[in-house]
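Would you mind writing out the residues of a protein together with its fold in token form for me to study?
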Amino acid sequence: MPDPTSEEDAAELLAAAQVSLNRHGEVLRALGRLFADNGHELYLVGGSVRDALLGRLGTDLDLTTDARPEQMQRFLRGWADALWDTGIEFGTIGVGKGADRLELTTFRADSYDQVSRNPEVRFGDSLDEDLVRRDFTVNAMAVRITPAGPAEFLDPLGGLAALRAGVLDTPSAPEVSFGDDPLRMLRAARFVSQLGFTVAARVRRALEEMAPALGRITAERVAHELDKLLLGADPVAGVDLMVQTGLGEVVLPEVGAMRMAIDEHHQHKDVYQHSLTVLRQAIDLEGPDGPDLVLRWAALLHDIGKPATRRHEPDGGVSFHHHEVVGAKMTRKRMRALKYSKQMVDDVSQLVYLHLRFHGYGDGRWTDSAVRRYVTDAGPLLTRLHKLVRADCTTRNKRRAARLQANYDDLEHRIDEIAAKEDLARVRPDLDGNEIMRILNIPAGPLVGRAWSHLKELRLDRGPLSHDEAVAELREWWNENGPPRV
């Protein structure tokens, strides 16, 4: 006998999906009419159906059809606001209509060589054939689109039941699916982060057995999935699935390696678990601006230098001297290998490098010069550095945690006080390069740069100087460091 509760749950999801789809009713009805008038079928598929059921459908819609790309181009050209053919070799036409962005793809029945992830593109003849080649059953549901709008819900592979259970399973055997496209394994971790799902037992076994196949995937595609994972609602769950199944060993080995290091406070199972806690706490500090990819990467990687710097001390303790320096180098190397932009590499590695600097602050014993240098070294990353340092406090000792937070409150207060008197956001020497050349009567060259650096150090140490003081300091430096007079 069917479970009435299950039927009620399914009905509620389908009703919620209808509400989501009604928001796109005008464009879907128009599309349904166009395709029907030209003798073709049209279905909403994939993540669009999944997200409609979850009540999170956006303006990007995925559809599939029996029409070939050149046929679609012909009858869509006069209707669409914009038309893109960048994916036409894979049977995909991009369409812009009002606020909606649509991807329409011809039924696919691809075959793979199990060596690369590039399929031999072959158009299919049926919806069922198209759905069975998709990555997960929750992405293998469809809604028929007619001139009247969304119509029949089609679920030949049990996607709705998997969605209700919060389980990721593959339409075909996972070994076949992941062998066709190993990137799907990383997408499993991404969906765990984004949707809060778990993976089916057979999928987990396949992930563990087939993880090395991720080596077939380009760095750019890996980085794209990692970013989506980290920007998800629960990136810790996604990262942990990667590490526990061996996927992380292929794409981000430095993170799993932290399981080997016990942290110096002995308050956590290992540095790996500490880093996951820091990631959670950094996310809690993000505020209304939403997910911060740079901050999340820095929180995950901030301690990756610890395994390489671990030392057992004579007193029985463990130290990780200069792990922030080593960690910044490791971060830079890994992110370059993943083909991140120079700005992204610089920002994340600089946060890793600076995350430990605050611990020299003690109980407010830094000079104003040290505070200026802290702000200057952080530059535009200062707000993120504040959040990273606060997130890095994971001690279970409430008194120590309160003292660390109070100390950082005090540091931020001192930064604000000095910033009220000086332009800390742009610490520059009190004389620019043109003035240096004029005062010393020298041409542009390395000496000007050395003089400029000297004046900047004075500015950091002593704060703003008057023009006369700056000139006097420059002449004194020149007398000691300039070229010998003839």
